[in-house]
Design goal:
alpha/beta; 8-stranded parallel β-barrel; binds flavin-adenine dinucleotide; 13% strand
Length: 304
């Protein structure tokens, strides 16, 4: 009961526009610095290097979402291009992750498409890959349409499928050949479109993973769930799926020991590294999905 209340509370905070705006000026609070890798490109690249030294690759995310003006969307696009250039210049092993609403999806879809093309053009020049994060259900179809359209010109782009949505299995079937990250899903969605029980989400997530591993296109399993990870390892062995056909992905600051252990066992491990001043929505979603994370938020609060 308490967990359900705190979940809804943190989801509501994550969507609060005034708090998201105010938090940009506060600097990191409540322990957010443990899961967000600094505010600028330099700090983010430093973290990537540290992880690369441990045999872990990265995907950088310059935090931002739901922008409401063309100026902000253009600024975000320019910044993504800078991140790609910084990756190329520093020679670190990293891809880029972006959110469509950061690039103007809610303002004008054609404008967002053009912004995405600018990003992919730069990525292509440097032989880099861009993953489009999946946001809330309202934006799922348009994101998938955008990915399909972009892939007519670019093959260095992929996206994310969320295990909690009823529609995901059908979406998966239409995305053979596209590099995907499979996750459970991070937004609060209603019963009309998404499984509500954790066991149902886990079952559907596992079903998608098996289907995808057998299908053969490179797949990322984005999860901190050791049960899922162990099942993937056993399934891959049983079906002779080579380690270079999949990778595990985790968020920066979470289960670092497990990340390193997986590398030692010979698996590909990539860490999603968010950075920038727009940390609030991202951080509140992390608190919503795992009440235990609240304890380090409280520690951060007390240490202020
Ligand atoms: C790389 C990456 C990218 C993502 N991209 C997206 C995206 O584009 N769109 C989207 O909607 N969502 C995204 N997510 C978030 C995802 O959808 C889930 O909300 C989030 O990962 C929580 O689910 P989980 O599978 O990690 O495990 P959960 O279901 O949260 O946890 C399962 C079990 O794993 C163990 N566990 C989990 N976390 C920890 C921990 N920190 N320490 C110790 N034990 C732990 C616990 O035993 C827990 O009961 C992403 C996640 C990752 C890792």
């Amino acid at each position: 009961m308490l967990a359900a209340v705190s979940k809804s509370f943190f989801y509501a905070l994550s969507e609060n526009k005034s708090l998201n705006k105010a938090a940009k000026k506060w600097g990191f609070r409540f322990g957010a610095g443990q899961v967000v890798a600094g505010v600028d490109i330099e700090s983010a690249i430093r973290k990537v290097k540290e992880l690369n030294d441990l045999g872990i690759t990265a995907t950088l995310d310059h935090l931002g979402e739901f922008v409401s003006s063309r100026e902000e969307a253009t600024e975000s696009t320019d910044y993504c291009i800078k991140v790609l250039e910084a990756i190329a210049e520093s020679g670190v092993k990293s891809t880029l992750s972006v959110k469509m609403t950061q690039l103007g999806l809610d303002i004008d879809q054609e404008f967002c498409f053009e912004n995405m093309c600018r990003i992919l053009e730069t990525a292509k020049t440097h032989d880099l890959f861009v993953q489009i994060d999946m946001e809330d259900f309202k934006r799922c179809q348009i994101t998938l349409d955008m990915v399909k359209r972009l892939r007519q010109t670019y093959d260095n782009v992929g996206t994310v499928i969320q295990g909690y949505l009823y529609r995901s299995e059908e979406d998966l079937d239409q995305l053979n050949g596209v590099v995907l990250r499979l996750v459970k899903g991070a937004y609060k969605e209603p019963a009309e479109v998404a499984f509500q029980e954790k066991s149902q989400v886990d079952d559907n997530y596992w079903k998608l993973i098996q289907k995808r591993l057998l299908e053969g296109t490179f797949t990322a399993i984005g999860s901190h769930d050791h049960n899922i990870i162990n099942k993937v390892k056993a399934f891959a062995k049983e079906h002779h799926i080579p380690n270079d056909q999949f990778e595990f992905q985790m968020l920066y600051g979470f289960r670092t020991e497990l990340q390193e252990q997986l590398v030692k066992e010979g698996y590909n491990m990539r860490v999603y590294i968010p950075f920038g001043t727009d940390w609030f929505g991202y951080f509140m979603r992390r608190l919503a999905e795992r009440p235990q994370n609240v304890s380090f938020a409280l520690k951060g609060l007390l240490s202020k």
